[in-house]
Amino acid sequence: MTPTNNTPTTRCCGNSFFRRLTLVLVSIFVIIMAIISIAWLAMHPHDPGFRLTSLSVTNFALSDSQVRGKYEVGLTITNPNKIKAQVVLHRVHTLRLYGEEWHSMAAVQQQQQTVFMEKFTNKSVKVDMEVRDSRQKVVPDVLFKNWTKGVVNFNMVVLGVKVRFQSGIWPSMDKLFDVQCMNLDVEFLSPTKDTGKLLGIGKNCHTVNARGTARSRK
Fold first, then answer.
1. To which H or E segment does residue 9 belong?
2. Would residue 215 count as lying in a domain?
């Protein structure tokens, strides 16, 4: 009598089990992600608010192809949410001097800063930056004229600010955006015009999404 071979049946049952297990795991994952998404939609966290409260410039110098200087920027950050937020200011920012033409400079922050914020709180921070613009390019004549007159207009863009929202047991939610502080008049009064300070009491800044929204676990 020929022995019975049950191998194909066993293999078929095994494959069916793994397919069902995979389907169950995928379904659980989808359900969990849906619950998390609904929870964050319900909480609807808003971007932190930024206000530039001070801007001082030292060692400012213009040449035909370069702009140099050190900058101390005062920022007030506001968390308008019921949940905690963590704001990370990265090291590379952009300063723009403007007149008839734009002249952009990469400003390097001395160190990356992380600001931890409880719900409904404000925090003030100082950001020290330095420009050593080694790229050879033409500095517009209007900048020399404005500097000679004693007032130079700046725009400051803080690139790639990361905010992490945290709420209880839920995985954190990260968001990247740029902070734009526009139309900042800086007055240079010293005889050599190498130091300057912001005119007025400060300016509100606005945020622009940089790379969309991403979620990450704690």
1. helix 7-43
2. no
Residue 28 shares a structural domain with residue 92: no
**Whole-angstrom Cα distance, residue 81 to residue 60?**
39
- Asked if residue 142 is part of any domain, the answer here is yes
- Read off the DSSP letter of residue 151: E
Let me know if residue 217 belongs to a domain: no
Structural domain of residue 17, as residue ranges? 13-43
pTM value is 0.75
Is there a contact between 97 and 154 (Cβ–Cβ < 8 Å)? yes
On whether the CB atoms of residues 206 and 161 are closer than 8 A, the answer is no
The tens digit of pLDDT for each residue in 185-208 reads 999 988 888 999 999 989 999 999
Residues in a beta bridge with 155: 96
Assess contact for 175 and 161: CB atoms under 8 A: no
